[in-house]
Design a protein that fits this description.
Strand 4 and strand 5 form a beta hairpin. The radius of gyration is 25 Å and the shape is elongated. Strands 1, 2, 3, 4, 5 and 6 form a 6-stranded mixed sheet that branches. Helices cover about 45% and strands about 15% of the residues. It is α+β, with helices and mostly antiparallel strands.
């Protein structure tokens, strides 16, 4: 699409809106592929309001991709703690080392796709924002805006839908203004065309929006039903012995790979096993919380929290290590375990106040 005359009215309208109302974000306009890549990885499953703080924290600690590549996995996971989807953090470190080996970031969409954890969306974002390429970015905001404006009813989580929306976005993209257009549509979806309670009555695109004209705003975008959510029962036991506690690192093939956690028991027999263990060893077993609900993408975890205070270290399962309790903050843990540790702190403070 060369020349202003060929710019689609949708693109013109959304670009005009963006010039007046676009969000000011610290990674915009810098042209630094490292800063842009880092922001896109953080924001893949994270709201901007939360991700902003993490982005600034990473930039302060590792101001360049070379510095990040020198970090250990434990350091990166610890800094990532609280964001969830920890495979993103592991991929981030792996990709940083790839970039260093390459001598710098690839400048093309195809080259960026070779980096660990970089899919079509992230590659397009870096190519567009850092290298000025006219490659359309398609994220949740873009799906929503395009599906409503053009009344596209193909499910956005289907293979056909992903291809259709990618093609539509690319066709709409005005030549030479790829970065502006991508940011404009994403911001428009985040600020105006929101999932719930969109601001249709003050929308600059209202007059030509098909979903508004046909009263379909709440019905779009179309999405196939999600897979059935499974429930998982977990029992965490914080074993405390003379200022030390036992933890282990979670292995591959399950949630929270590479993160640390206290003694974990799974299944309905956990409480019976704990009672037997206490009768054998003595000590004090305290139930802090029962069935703490923790929701993940495809499963719901219900966890019980116990503290087991003993005078002699019990024999722990293979892979557990004893560490000083004061050092527990040095280890990256899942959010659920972080909640458990907070409960322990509150419980100890309450017991101390009595």
């Amino acid at each position: 699409m060369d020349g202003l005359k060929q710019v689609h009215p949708f693109a013109s309208a959304v670009l005009g809106w963006f010039e007046r109302h676009g969000r000011e974000l610290p990674w915009r306009g810098v042209g630094d592929p490292y800063a842009i890549w880092l922001s896109e990885v953080i924001l893949q499953q994270t709201r901007v309001s939360q991700g902003w703080e993490y982005w600034e924290r990473f930039i302060r600690r590792w101001p360049s991709v070379e510095r990040l590549a020198e970090a250990s996995e434990d350091e990166v996971l610890r800094e990532w703690q609280g964001l969830g989807y920890y495979s993103r953090a592991r991929n981030l470190l792996h990709a940083a080392r790839q970039v260093v080996e390459m001598g710098g970031f690839p400048s093309t969409f195809e080259g960026l796709r070779q980096l660990k954890g970089v899919g079509d969306y992230t590659a397009a974002a870096i190519a567009s924002f850092a290298f000025g390429q006219d490659v359309a970015v398609v994220d949740g905001n873009v799906y929503r805006v395009l599906s409503r404006y053009f009344d596209v009813q193909t499910p956005i989580n289907s293979t056909e839908g992903k291809k259709e929306f990618a093609l539509l976005a690319q066709q709409l993209l005005p030549g030479g203004r790829g970065a502006d257009f991508n940011q404009a549509v994403m911001d428009f979806g985040a600020v105006m065309c929101t999932p719930k309670a969109p601001r249709c009555r003050e929308c600059a695109l209202q007059e030509t929006c098909r979903a508004w004209a046909e009263d379909k705003v709440d019905a779009l975008p179309v999405k196939w039903k999600k897979v059935k959510v499974k429930e998982r029962k977990m029992t965490y036991v914080y074993v405390a012995c003379k200022g030390e506690t036992a933890i282990h690192r979670r292995g591959k093939g399950d949630i929270w790979q590479g993160l640390w956690e206290p003694w974990l028991l799974e299944g309905d027999e956990a409480s019976t096993l704990l009672t037997t263990c206490q009768e054998k060893m003595g000590g004090r077993l305290t139930l802090l919380a029962r069935e703490v609900k923790h929701v993940l993408t495809h499963r719901v975890i219900k966890a019980d929290f116990y503290v087991f205070e003993v005078d002699e270290k019990p024999e722990m399962p293979e892979g557990y290590r004893w560490i000083p309790e004061k050092d527990i903050g040095k280890y990256a843990v899942p959010r659920l375990v972080e909640i458990f540790f907070q409960d322990i702190g509150e419980w100890r403070n309450t017991a101390h106040d009595r």
